[in-house]
Write a structure and sequence with these properties.
The complex is a heterodimer of chains A (80) and B (142). Chain A is mainly α and 80 residues long. In chain A, 60% of the residues lie in helices and 0% in strands. Classes of the chains: A mainly alpha (80), B alpha+beta (142). Chains A and B meet through helix 3 of A and strand 7 and strand 8 of B.
Chain lengths: 80, 142
C-alpha cells in the first residue's frame, strides 16, 4: 500500500472506530487528545491497527507515537 | 481437544475464586497470545435456572477464563497469580443459553496491549456451536 493510501485508510478506520470526523485528524495532532483516548481505551487503537494493518505496536514503542504523523510512519515502516 | 493441563482444584492455582462460584473446571492450553478453558455445567451450578446456565454465569465463566489465562504465565514460573481487574466488558453476544451437562470450551485471544491493559476476545462454544462471544479489557497489578 502506498503511503498516501495508507494514511487515508488509517484516518478512515480511526475516525469510524472513535466516532470523530476524518477532518479532525491532522498529521501533527496529538492522537490521545484527538481520539479522546484514556488509559483504558488506548488499547483499542493498538488492537485496531494490528487487526487492520497487521502491525503490532509494543508498549515501549507506543511512547514515541504521540502524533498521527508518527503513527503513519510507524505503520508504513512496519507493514509486511 | 487435548487433555487439560489443569482440572478441578488445580485451577485454584490460577484463579482466586472458590466454590460455589468457580466457573472454570479445565485449562486446556495456553501460549503468550491465546488460551483455551472449559466448564461442564453441573445441575447444582449456582448460575443455573430451569436447566440452563443464565447470562451472569456465562459472563462469569468468561471472566474467570480470562483470569486463568492471566494467571497461567506466573504459574509456569512458579509464582503466585497477580491481582487482576476487568476494566471493561464489551460486545458481549449470547446466541443461546447453554444447558445443564453441556461442556463449554472458551478460546481467548489477545487483541492488543497498551499501558498495562490487555484487550482479549473470547469465544465460548458448546460442541461445535458458538454460544457467546465478547471482548474484555484486563489490567494486571504489577
Amino acid at each position: 500500500m502506498e503511503k498516501n493510501e495508507l494514511i487515508e485508510k488509517i484516518n478512515e478506520v480511526l475516525a469510524e472506530e472513535f466516532e470523530i470526523e476524518v477532518a479532525d485528524i491532522t498529521p501533527e495532532a496529538n492522537i490521545k487528545e484527538t481520539l479522546q483516548l484514556d488509559s483504558l481505551s488506548l488499547v483499542d487503537m493498538v488492537a485496531l491497527i494490528e487487526s487492520e494493518f497487521g502491525v503490532k505496536i509494543k508498549s515501549s514503542e507506543l511512547i514515541n507515537i504521540q502524533t498521527f504523523a508518527a503513527l503513519y510512519d510507524f505503520v508504513n515502516d512496519n507493514q509486511k | 481437544m487435548n487433555e487439560p493441563i489443569l482440572t478441578g482444584e488445580g485451577l485454584y492455582k490460577l484463579i482466586p475464586q472458590r466454590p460455589p462460584i468457580v466457573m472454570v473446571d479445565s485449562f486446556f492450553e495456553a501460549d503468550a497470545e491465546s488460551a483455551t478453558t472449559g466448564l461442564t455445567i453441573l445441575p447444582n451450578n449456582i448460575f443455573c435456572l430451569d436447566g440452563q446456565l443464565q447470562e451472569p454465569g456465562l459472563i462469569e465463566h468468561v471472566a474467570q477464563s480470562a483470569a486463568a489465562f492471566a494467571g497461567y504465565a506466573p504459574y509456569t514460573r512458579g509464582e503466585s497469580p497477580k491481582l487482576g481487574f476487568i476494566g471493561e466488558v464489551k460486545k458481549f453476544k449470547i446466541m443461546r443459553l447453554p444447558e445443564v451437562n453441556e461442556q463449554l470450551v472458551t478460546t481467548l485471544k489477545v487483541l492488543g496491549e497498551a499501558a498495562g491493559v490487555t484487550l482479549i476476545s473470547a469465544q465460548t462454544n458448546a460442541g461445535e456451536e458458538t454460544v457467546a462471544t465478547c471482548q474484555m479489557k484486563i489490567f494486571i497489578k504489577e
